[in-house]
Specification:
This protein is α/β, with parallel strands linked by helices and 570 residues long. 45% of the residues lie in helices and 16% in strands. It contains 23 helices and 18 strands.
């Protein structure tokens, strides 16, 4: 044990020594040089994408021939390559002395200024037809101030921020690379990335992709258990910590463990002596507004919500856990029947994330009447939840395939207000909230629907889309709703992604079509996107995901026909 600890200390010391020298090199590197490194990384992402996905498939125990492999393409190399391209364009603008927001489309949401993040170019309009995203700025931040502040630390690239420690996540394989990139670019900090042990098998491919930054000495990748992470974040050379994980892990880092942790927390005396930012998940709601839906609508949205829970096996910080429906909706029973069927028939997969089976069993013990669905009853659908009670499902992020249904009385307007109150006041966390609503219902509610979005205190709000679309949008922000503190961290502190490097962000709002093409066009939604490739029921997700990743690494018009053909067969 002492030998292992000594080896870990030696590895950390060597990495931080390299990074201290790398920081000096980084401070002297002009924006053009930084952009060249990111462009080379994007090429390497495309070159090693298959190796990345193969490693992720082995980690997660997926059948290599399964359409579910598409999840690994889209939430892995695709989003990293797309982000590298977007950040490179930001640096190019700054290099020319132009704000990254110079050509951005600004709007308004109540008393807030908004920035359109999606679509940001013609490719977006074609590949994600009908989807949009807006970054909402905090109250008081004007469009002029946003333009002036866009660029963050790259407005003064010679002024570096020391060495940052990034503690990677163990679920979505692009989280650690994206967080590392954001630390380096948004905050001008060189990075010691400590991988989650689950993703240790990806170290080799990550080192190939990050080779331009590793060779310069501005990134080092470390592996090991919690003790290595603990030694890293407390090292005197570390200036800042960023982590993705659970609130319990965050509190252990900040306050320590055991009886003394509670004493420190009560006294406001953290054990960690440096700033920390974080993304920590929570209990995400999906609010279903009552309306007049066709059978096809009921079935499609049931698959949509099943995807929100079951994507990546249910191991997503923004996975839906509480579906809030109107008890007075005439179609409620038909919708719940469709949702049950969608959860039942979704493809089976191994519960790869540690402790998953135990968490499902614990939820089953708390809710013994829950429906056990899927292979071997490994998925739980919990109904009969009392919205007025302090339910475990409201306060515990299961991080497993457990989905609860909460019924509230009322028609559209009354129900919408009460559903927002329930989401804001009863559910732990503020990372993401989803709203599913028929276009006619949205039109009928009018300004009340806009108020509903505004009142939701979440870092990403998605309308007829999953909040994960925000994660996949490089120019959108990703993180908790602002205002959390070290002693009440909820879903975390700070944001990531944000490829335009916007200052003063409050949230991102994503919108999508209520129906897939061609039904969307027949009902005048003017969206050409068929069933999205991230749906767990998409039959061509693996091929579409691979083609999307190739396109993001090397965007060319000639790549689009095969991509569209695959998407249409999904």
């Amino acid at each position: 044990m002492q030998t292992e600890q000594a080896a870990a200390d030696t590895a950390i010391d060597a990495a931080l020594t390299d990074l201290a020298e790398g920081e000096r090199k980084w401070s002297r590197l002009p924006l053009s040089g930084r952009r060249a490194l990111l462009d080379r990384m994007r090429e390497l992402t495309g070159k090693h994408a298959q190796e990345w996905v193969d490693a992720a498939v082995r980690v997660k125990g997926l059948d290599p021939a399964s359409p579910l492999v598409g999840e690994e393409w889209i939430s892995g190399p695709y989003v990293l390559a797309a982000t590298l391209d977007a950040v490179s364009r930001t640096l190019e603008s700054l290099e020319r002395g132009v704000s990254p927001l110079a050509k951005a489309k600004f709007g308004a949401a109540g008393d807030r200024v908004t920035v359109r993040a999606l679509p940001s170019n013609l490719y977006d309009e074609l590949l994600l037809s009908g989807f949009s995203a807006e970054v909402w700025l905090r109250r008081g931040v004007s469009s002029a101030a946003a333009k002036a502040g866009a660029g963050l630390a790259q407005l003064d690239p010679a002024r570096t921020g020391g060495i940052g420690a990034v503690l990677g996540a163990g679920n979505i394989t692009s989280i650690a690379p994206l967080d590392t990139l954001y630390e380096l670019i948004a905050h001008n900090r060189v990075v010691a990335l400590k991988l989650n042990p689950i993703t240790d098998p990806l170290r080799q491919v990550f080192e190939k992709i990050f080779a331009p930054l590793i060779d310069l000495g501005v990134v080092r990748i470390l592996t090991g258990g919690a003790e290595v992470g603990g030694r890293l974040v407390t090292h005197e050379r570390i200036a800042h910590v960023h982590m993705t994980g659970s609130a319990a892990t965050h509190d252990a880092i900040v306050w320590g463990t055991g009886p003394d942790a509670a004493t420190r927390k009560a006294a406001g005396a953290p054990l960690l002596d440096k700033p920390i930012s974080s993304e920590l998940g929570g209990v995400s709601p999906t609010i279903v507004l009552p309306g007049a839906w066709s059978t096809a609508d009921l079935e499609f949205q049931a698959e949509h919500i099943a995807t929100q829970r079951l994507h990546n096996g249910g191991y997503n910080c923004v996975a839906a856990q509480a579906v809030i429906v109107s008890a007075d909706w005439p179609q409620k029973d038909r919708f719940l029947a469709a949702l049950t069927a969608a959860l039942e028939r979704a493809p089976g997969r191994r519960a790869y994330y540690p402790g998953s089976d135990d968490r499902v069993a614990a939820a089953g013990a708390t809710y013994p009447d829950a429906r056990r669905l899927g292979d071997h009853g490994g998925r739980l659908l919990v109904t009969g939840i009392d919205p007025a009670a302090n339910e475990e499902l409201f306060s515990t992020e299961y991080f497993a395939p457990v989905l609860g249904v909460v019924e509230l009385p009322g028609s559209a307007a009354t129900f919408a207000r009460d559903a927002v109150d329930t989401a804001n006041e009863k559910l732990v966390g503020t990372l993401g909230a989803n709203i599913v609503a028929h276009p006619d219902t949205i039109a009928e509610l009018g300004a009340e629907f806009d108020t509903m979005i505004e009142r939701l205190r979440y870092g990403t709000v998605a309308v007829n889309a999953w909040t994960a679309v925000g994660y996949l949008t490089p120019t959108a922000s990703w993180g908790a709703y602002p205002g959390h503190t070290l002693d009440d961290v909820q879903s975390g502190i700070g944001i990531v992604h944000n490829a335009w490097l916007i200052d003063g962000v409050e949230r991102t709002v994503v919108r999508g079509p209520f129906r897939p093409a061609p039904r969307s066009v027949l009902h005048r939604e003017w969206a050409l996107t068929p069933k999205p490739p991230w749906f767990v029921t998409n039959r061509t997700a693996a091929r579409t995901g691979r083609l999307l990743a190739a396109f993001a690494a090397d965007p060319r018009w000639s790549r689009l026909p095969a991509l569209f053909a695959s998407a249409l067969r999904g």
